[in-house]
Amino acid sequence: MVMPIANSLSHDITAQTQLSRTQTTAPNEKALEERQTFQKFAAGTFYQTMFKALRSTERETKYFNGGRAEKIFRNEFDQHVASTMAEEHGSPFAGPLFDQYNAMRNRETMLAAAATPLRTHPGGES
């Protein structure tokens, strides 16, 4: 059975529209995922270092010392709080860092592409 031209044409246009949507959304999703991962790392490292410095100022007391178990729990708790803070409040801290990193990476990509010589076709001319 032969499909009518109108149906075939509308199917092709619909397929092209869907393809262009997936091509435009995929890089945005990838960029968002990169930004979130960068935020978790940069802000998480900052907050963990901040908590470590905070805990180093405390003195151990004779009567309220929980021993090794308390130290392990405190480290795990600080890690959890730091990762939560990085996810929820790390954007103002890590956002400008990511923008600088992304600009530097794009600049390096452009320089590498400009330094790559043009390939010649088998016919002889480029």
How would you describe the shape? Answer: elongated
Oligomer: single chain
Task: Figure out the total of helices.
Answer: 3
Number of strands: 0
- The proportion of strand residues reads under 5%
Structural class: mainly alpha
Biggest sheet character = none
Report Rg.
27 Å
Can you write the helix and strand succession as a string? Answer: HHH
Mean of all residue-level pLDDT scores:
79
**Percent helix among the residues?**
over 70%
Ranges with pLDDT <50 over ≥5 residues?
Answer: 5-12
Distance N to C terminus: 46 Å
Question: What layout of secondary structure does this protein have?
Answer:
Blueprint (H helix, E strand, L loop, with lengths): L4 H52 L10 H23 L1 H25 L11
Helix pairs in contact: 1-2, 1-3
Describe the overall structure.
The protein has 126 residues and is mostly helical. It has a domain at 37-56 and 67-113. Helix content is 79%, strand content 0%. It is built from three helices and no strands. It has helices at residues 5-56, 67-89, 91-115. Helix 1 packs across helix 2 (67-89) and helix 1 packs across helix 3 (91-115). It is elongated, with a radius of gyration of 27 Å. The two termini are 46 Å apart. Mean pLDDT is 79; it is low at 5-12.
